[in-house]
Structures are given as C-alpha cells and as structure tokens.
Task: inverse folding
C-alpha cells in the first residue's frame, strides 16, 4: 500500500522533538545568509523566510502597502549576520509589558496599535494630533540594517523599516527655539501590565529625548516595521525610535507624543538613576556603567558553546557618521 | 508490628529519595531546555539566572527548617537540612561555573575586570566562598571533630544570606518585586531566630533571679 495509514507509522520514524528543534536551530542560522542572498531587484526589500510557526505582524492595510513599496537603503547595510527574526521578536526590553526578556512577547499580544494617533506639539509651526497613517504616508519607507546595543551589554543586528525622523519633523516646521525633541510612550495601565506594577521605580509614561541635531541626523530613524513586516507589539509597534549609536533604551517604543522644546527633556532612566544613565547615553566602551563594564558586548543569539563576545565600538560603530555632533564635548562627563 | 516497621522504613526511603531528587528538577528542566534550544536568544544568561535563583531558593529553604521545628514543631525536615544546604552549595557552584563558562568563556582578563567592576559579583563570590567550608564540614565526622566550634562555624550561613541579598539588590534595574519577596522571607527567617534567642535570654535571666 502506498499511502500509509497513520497507525502504520512506526514511532521510530517520527522525528523526535529535539531533532526537529535542532533543525530549526540550524535553519535559524542559515536564514540570515539566505535573506541576504535573496536580494533580487536593486533596492527591493528581500523576502525574508520566517519559520512557519512564528507569528508575523502584518499591520493595517495601508502599512502593508507602504512596506511593500519600501526600498532598502544601500548606505545603511552591514555584512554582519542578522539576528534571526525569532530572537528579535522574543527577546525584548519593554518594561511596560514586564521586566523579563520574554515578558513583552508574552503580554503584548493583545496590545491595540491600530488606529494610532501621535501628538506633535511644542516648538513647531504645525502642531496637532495626527493619525499615524497620515504621518507615514507622504514618505517613502526604507529598510536599514542597524546594530542595536543594549546598555546591558548585549547586541543584535536588526533590519528595520521606517523613515528618517528628520524628514518627518521638517514637515511640521520646527521653530528656531526647538533645541530638543521629547518622545513619550503610551500610558495605558489597562493594556500595559508593567505600568500597574507597584514595585517599579520607573515613572510612567516613559519619556526619552534627543538634541535637535541628533534628531535631524540622517541615521536617526522612526521605525514602523522590522524584517519586512509591521513591528510586533513587543518591539514597540506601531511607531518607535531607532538611534543606532545610543544605548537601546533611548530608542523609545510605541510613541504617542513628539514634542519639540527648548529645554533638555527629563528622560525616564536618567531621572531614576542619573549617575547610571545619562541624557546622551551614546555607546561608549570607555565609559562604564557603574555596575558593569561597557568595553565589550555579547552579540545575540549567543550559544552555550560560544558567548559571542565582541569589543564594543565607540558610538556603536557609527563614529564616522556621528562623532562630529559631540566635538569638543567631554564624553566622560556627558555620558 | 514487624509489618508496620518495614512499611515505615520503606516510606522513609521513599521520602529520602523524593527530597533527594526534587532539588534536581530545576537543573534537569534547564538542561532539557538547553538541549532543545528553548532558552531564547541568550541561553547563557538564562542558565546563570535560573541556577542563581535556585541556589537562593534552596538556601532560604535550608534556613526555614529550624523555625519550622521551633514554631510548628515540624521536626522531620531536620533530617534533610544538610542535604538542602549541600544542594545550595551545588547550585551556587553551577551558577558560578555557568557564568565563567557561558558568559565569560573563561577569559581570565574579563573575569578579573568583572570582579573589580561589578561589585555585586564580588559579593556573590564572597557568599560562595563562605559556603565552601560549610559544605566541607558538613559530614558527621567533621561535626564530631569540631564539637562546639561546628555550630559556631555554621552560623556563617547568616552573613552568607545577607551577602546574597546584597548580591541581588545591586542588580535591580527598576523593578524590585523579587528582591522584596526574598527580603521579606529572609527577615522572617532571621527574625524568628532573634525572637527565640531573646526568649531564651529572658528565661535564663528569670531562672537566675529565681535562684
């Protein structure tokens, strides 16, 4: 008989779970390379192969269309291996959804990110509350591959989809008094269990900020997607900042307000522990966090056979692009 | 009569094996999940964290045995105090080895740097160092040989527990719920000892006055 009945399959023929998962592990390693090779058209975003059992976040229709029409920015690529999608979407610091690395993926799945409004206020000619769609639509989205260095001394390589923050800000006509940009994350304790925790020393909502020249720098990005799809909620959907030369916590997630101001914003971690987290928080191997060294980092995923430890570079390897922003500043003082 | 005796003996064995095997479950699960690559993007961190948490859980359990006897007159766990203490040492050693192997890759330069720059590691290492003599002197023979000094030596477990508290408090980034829970339990465990110590003192004083 050609077609076997299920009960005639010997248990020895069934791939054991561990072998199956081993294969998955192997595939994960291979995917990054395959993704790079698959780049067909000159600037099109490659078709990322994602394991079948992983959730993909497509986002609203208009965003799908924007992402489909997006192009890879050839200036911001790297030959470093991408951190597999699985790890990018399951290993997150997003304290609004819990302090464990797996908490955000666990608790953010029902997070409502559509419709989404963003308030743009302060020192701009056209303040207002805008639909995310209206903010994003006028721009051609692009994919950029950036290194992400967490202050906890681990790092990833992530293909984001989004636009330059500066391009967006210009449309709202910043005034000459706009010296800083302040970003605020959604405050919604009902959806964000971390904001209900009684044992957190962080003040909500989460606030981050940049100096205006940092915000206008072409590397600074507002991301709406990752790995060729919309952002997963645990990665800061539907709109997040990506500032690749600063520690990860500067790249604020799920933004609801962008305010331009003449005063240095009071950023969350800096307010909680100013001696540990500076306003600038540029990646700097020469300035240690008081409780750990920043000289090296572990590139994730690491394995038990190899900690994958690499030296941390000044400005996370983007010194050529951004070092001039800080010329004349004592970076030990302005950490 | 003889039947009852063999039965209780058999139950005793079963109990011993249960208590012996139970503390190995977390390590077993961790090993299994590492084997099937189910520990996420940073398996090293996960292993170091879990083994550390279980060293603490076991230390706190060990410290709970005497108060259990004094307050609730539960005396049978006394038989397992040494075993649990040794398991604490075991998990602490695995914790350190996992840190040195999986996080540092045995780079001695990094190890030295980390020891100097991360004070919580120094405190944790001190706690582990102090645990070693307790483990070494845990045998009956050593107990007999050391006599009264054995008890004195094993009072080290209190500073060890406090060092462990500092070790975890210095790692707080923003949420201190876990540290609060361990701190509260430890305060009860140590508080009961202070209470019984003072009670004993009062009794001795009263006896002296009566005489």
Result:
């Amino acid at each position: 008989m050609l077609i076997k009945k299920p009960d005639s399959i010997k248990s020895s023929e069934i791939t054991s779970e561990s072998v199956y998962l081993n294969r998955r592990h192997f595939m994960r390693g291979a995917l990054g390379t395959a993704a790079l090779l698959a780049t067909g058209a000159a600037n099109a975003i490659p078709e990322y192969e994602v394991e079948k059992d992983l959730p993909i976040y497509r986002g609203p229709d208009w965003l799908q269309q924007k992402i489909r029409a997006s192009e890879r920015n050839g200036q911001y690529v790297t030959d470093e291996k991408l951190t597999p999608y699985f790890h990018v979407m399951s290993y997150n610091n997003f304290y609004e959804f819990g302090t464990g690395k797996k908490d955000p993926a666990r608790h953010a799945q029902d997070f409502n990110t559509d419709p989404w409004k963003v308030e743009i206020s302060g020192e701009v000619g056209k303040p207002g509350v805008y639909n995310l769609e209206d903010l994003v639509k006028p721009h051609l989205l692009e994919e950029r591959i950036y290194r992400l260095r967490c202050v906890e001394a681990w790092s990833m390589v992530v293909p984001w989809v989004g636009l330059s923050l500066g391009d967006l800000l210009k449309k709202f006509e910043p005034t000459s008094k706009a010296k800083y940009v302040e970003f605020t994350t959604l405050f919604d304790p009902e959806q964000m269990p971390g904001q209900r925790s009684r044992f957190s020393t962080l003040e909500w909502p989460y606030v981050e900020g940049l100096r205006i020249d940092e915000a206008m720098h072409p590397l600074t990005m507002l991301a709406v997607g990752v790995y060729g799809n919309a952002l997963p909620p645990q990665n800061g959907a539907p709109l997040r900042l990506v500032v690749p030369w600063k520690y990860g916590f500067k790249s604020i997630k799920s933004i609801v307000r962008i305010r331009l101001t003449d005063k240095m914003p009071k950023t969350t971690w800096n307010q909680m522990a100013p001696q540990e987290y500076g306003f600038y928080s540029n990646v700097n191997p020469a300035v240690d966090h008081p409780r750990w060294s920043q000289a090296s980092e572990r590139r994730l995923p690491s394995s038990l056979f190899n900690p994958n430890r690499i030296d941390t570079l000044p400005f996370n390897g983007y010194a050529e692009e951004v070092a001039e922003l800080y010329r004349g500043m004592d970076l030990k003082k302005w950490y | 009569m003889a039947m009852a005796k063999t039965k209780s003996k058999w139950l005793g064995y079963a109990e011993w094996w249960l208590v012996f095997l139970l503390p190995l479950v977390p390590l077993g699960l961790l090993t299994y999940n590492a084997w099937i690559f189910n520990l996420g993007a940073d398996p090293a961190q996960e292993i170091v964290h879990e083994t550390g948490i279980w060293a603490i859980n076991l230390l706190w359990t060990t410290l709970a045995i005497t108060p259990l006897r004094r307050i609730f007159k539960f005396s049978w766990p006394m038989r397992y105090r040494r075993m649990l203490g040794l398991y604490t040492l075991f998990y602490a050693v695995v914790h350190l080895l996992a840190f040195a192997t999986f996080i540092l890759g045995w780079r001695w330069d990094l190890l030295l740097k980390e020891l100097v720059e991360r004070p919580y590691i120094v405190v944790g290492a001190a706690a582990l160092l102090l645990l070693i003599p307790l483990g070494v002197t845990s045998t009956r023979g050593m107990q007999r040989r050391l006599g009264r000094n054995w008890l004195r030596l094993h009072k080290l477990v209190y500073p060890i527990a406090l060092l462990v508290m500092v070790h975890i408090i210095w790692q707080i980034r923003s949420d201190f719920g876990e540290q609060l829970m361990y701190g509260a339990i430890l305060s009860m465990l140590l508080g009961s000892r202070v209470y019984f110590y003072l009670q004993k003192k009062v009794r001795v004083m009263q006896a002296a006055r009566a005489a």
Summary: DSSP finds ten helices and no strands in chain B. Chain B has a mean pLDDT of 91. The two ends of chain B are 48 Å apart (CA to CA).
